[in-house]
């Protein structure tokens, strides 16, 4: 498996990974219509709008996991924390891996690479937000040393859902 910086030409594949991950991760946590509303086309459009400077930005990193055959099966996005009201400098905004590639160490590898980027920016602390009830992700972040220290509501498709903030107070030895 190769981890590399994402290119603009990867956005549709990244959108595919995100959509497929939502389909396998969020049933029972989010309404079916919310999950089904995420299509590869809609996410490709949204990500293209979010990341016009994908290849040149120094404010965020988007890394993809690519098989030997060149198929993107996971990605991670990180940068400066979006929430200025909290004291955490860095944030992993999202990490998604296609189900068949989960539980093989890929998530840990992606997280470590994202944290390297945050450390290189001079950040010492980090947060990642997880939908409450997402036990698999919560166990994963706990295993990596994250501790739930924050809670808030997050708007998805016009409805509020509780999310937990997993925090690392020192990412220098992640």
What does this protein look like?
By secondary structure, the chain is of the alpha+beta class. It has one domain (2-168): Aminopeptidase (3-Layer(aba) Sandwich). 32% of the residues lie in helices and 31% in strands. The protein contains five helices and seven strands; from the N terminus they run E-H-H-H-E-E-E-H-E-H-E-E. It has helices at residues 11-25, 32-36, 40-50, 106-120, 135-143; strands spanning 2-5, 60-66, 72-80, 90-97, 126-131, 147-156, 159-168. It has a seven-stranded mixed sheet with strand order 1-2-3-4-5-7-6, with helices on both faces. Strand 4, helix 4 and strand 5 form a beta-alpha-beta unit. Helix 1 crosses helix 3. The radius of gyration is 15 Å and the shape is globular. The relative contact order is 0.16. The model has no long low-confidence stretch (mean pLDDT 94).
SSE blueprint:
Blueprint: E1 2-5, H1 11-25, H2 32-36, H3 40-50, E2 60-66, E3 72-80, E4 90-97, H4 106-120, E5 126-131, H5 135-143, E6 147-156, E7 159-168
Parallel strand pairs: 4-5
Antiparallel strand pairs: 1-2, 2-3, 3-4, 5-7, 6-7
